[in-house]
Amino acid sequence: MYKAVLAALLYIGIVIGGYTLYDGYFGAPLAAADGAGHGNDGHDAATNAGEHEGGSEEHGQGGHDEHAAGAEGSNQVSAYIRSDKEGIDIFLKDSNGLAVHDLVVNHEKLLHLIVVDEHLQKYYHLHPEQVEEGKFHVGYILPEGFYRAFIDIKSEKLAYHVEPMPLVVGNPGVSVPGKALQPDSVLEKTVEGESVKLKMSSSKTNVPVTLSFELDQSALTPYLGAMGHVVILDEEANQYLHVHPINQEEPVFQTEFKKPGVYKIWAEFQQNGKVRAFPFVVQIQGE
C-alpha cells in the first residue's frame, strides 16, 4: 500500500514538473504569436478596406525609386483612405498594425495625395496634414463620384510602393463607363490663358523618354521644391508615375514606359503664384 501511494505521488510530481518545463519553453512564444496575430488582423483590415490592386512604376529624378532605397526587411506600409462630409482621412500602418511614424519630407510635404475620377477627366493634387501618428486629414470636399487615389509617401525604413486605391465620395449610384482615352493629335494645351507645349524624345517602351515643356518661363517659379511636377497614369489608372525635373533650372523631365498603351500626363507648373495642371494624352508603342 505504501509503495502504491509513493508511486502515485512520484507520477504526479513528474507530470507537474513536465508541464512546468513545457510551459517555460513554449508558453511565451505562444503568447507572442497571439499578440502578433492581433497586429496582423489590424494590418489585414487596413489592406482589405483599401482594396489595393495594380502597382506603380518607379522612374524619374527624385521619383519613387527613392522610396524603396534603404528599406529594411520586408516591412510594408498599408494605407486606408476614406471620405466623409469633413473631407478625406488617410491611415497608415506597418505590417504589425502599428501607426507609421517614420515618414520623411519629400518635396516639402510628408504626404502627397493624387486623386483622379474614374474617367481620368478630373485631377487633384492634395496635401493632407498629419493630425496624429499614422493619420492624415485634408478638409477638401471632392464632388460626388467614383475616384482612384494614390498616396505618395516616403518612409525612412519601411518599403512602400504607390498603389491605386478606390475612393467613393457621397452616394454616386452606379458607375457609368466613359469614353476611351484618345491620344492628342497636337500636344499643346491652354489652361486659364496659359499655354504649354509638350515634346517627347520617344514614344517607345523601355527606353529613356525626355519630356520637354515649352511655356512662359518668365513667370515660372518652383512649386513644392521643383520647377514642375509630372504625374502619369495608364488608361486603367493602374500604373502610376510621379516624375520630377532633371534639374532645378528648366521644366525638363525624364522617365520610361514599361508597357505599350495610352497614357494620360498631367504637368503641373506654378506661374505668377498660380498652380495649373495641363493634361496630355499620348500613345506609347512597343519596341
Overall number of domains: 2
- Per DSSP E runs of 2 or more residues, the count of β-strands stands at 18
CATH superfamily of the largest domain: Immunoglobulins
N- and C-termini, Cα separation:
93 Å
At CATH level 2, the architecture of the largest domain is Sandwich
Low-confidence stretches: 1-75
**Strand fraction:** 35-45%
Largest beta-sheet characterization:
6 strands, mixed
Report the average pLDDT across residues.
79
Taken in chain order, the helices and strands follow as HEHEEEEEEEEEEEEEEEEE
What CATH first level of the largest domain would be assigned?
Answer: Mainly Beta
Structural class estimated from helices and strands: alpha+beta
C-alpha Rg (nearest Å): 26 Å
- How much helix is in the residues? 10-25%
Tell me about this structure:
This protein is an alpha+beta fold and 287 residues long. The protein folds into two domains: 1-179, Sandwich (Immunoglobulin-like), CATH 2.60.40.10; 188-284, Immunoglobulin-like (Sandwich). Helices cover 18% and strands 37% of the residues. It has two helices and 18 strands. The chain has helices spanning 2-50, 65-68, and strands at 55-56, 78-84, 87-93, 111-117, 123-126, 129-132, 135-138, 145-153, 164-169, 188-191, 194-200, 209-214, 220-221, 229-234, 239-243, 252-255, 261-271, 274-284. Strands 1, 13, 14, 15, 17 and 18 form a six-stranded mixed beta sheet that branches. A four-stranded antiparallel beta sheet has the order 2-3-7-6. Strands 5-4-8-9 form a four-stranded antiparallel beta sheet, with no helix packed on it. A hairpin with a 2-residue loop joins strand 17 (261-271) and strand 18. The chain is globular and about 45 Å long.
